[in-house]
Design a protein that fits this description.
The chain is α+β, with helices and mostly antiparallel strands. Helices cover about 35% and strands about 35% of the residues. The longest helix has about 50 residues, at about 5-55. The N and C termini lie far apart (about 100 Å).
Length: about 150
């Protein structure tokens, strides 16, 4: 074999080697990206699933005449809030007229607690919530409302 015959074989071999190197390098990158995308989709699915199992409890106050107030405790989550207990720690000079015991609140529904505030009642009131949902059996939250 002469040099003129060997040069095309060497060039072809180098081109084949470079093509294989490039293929495997980008194949590894694509596999890494697919792994990241799959992990992202799994995390997103888990968050959506958790969101479907979570109840979120909050309260609003509706003012009435002569110091009457209705505290609306509502569930703005997507799951049923089970065994909801609402407490008013340190509620001095505020009379709780209508207080349900442990109760379940469906998604996007509420319960009403009627209270009477006097002129010497505090301007704000702390409300503690405890409930269970499909995600956790021991949920707690606290909120300060303006009476």
């Amino acid at each position: 074999m002469t040099a003129l015959q060997i040069i095309p074989i060497i060039v072809s071999t180098m081109a084949l080697g470079f093509s294989l190197y490039t293929h495997f390098k980008y194949d590894a990158k694509i596999k890494k990206q697919n792994t990241l995308i799959n992990q992202f989709q799994l995390d997103k699915f888990k968050k959506e699933t958790d969101s479907e199992k979570r109840a979120i409890i909050e309260a609003n106050v509706v003012k009435g005449e002569k110091g009457k107030r209705i505290v609306k405790v509502y569930n703005k989550g997507k799951a049923i809030a089970k065994n909801v207990v609402v407490t008013f720690p340190g509620a001095s000079n505020v009379f709780i007229m209508d207080y349900p015991a442990s109760i379940d609140i469906r998604s996007q529904n509420s319960i009403d607690i009627q209270i009477n505030a006097s002129k010497i009642s505090p301007e704000t009131l702390t409300i503690n919530f405890e409930w269970e949902d499909d995600l956790s059996l021991n949920n707690k939250d606290s909120q300060i409302i303006q009476v």
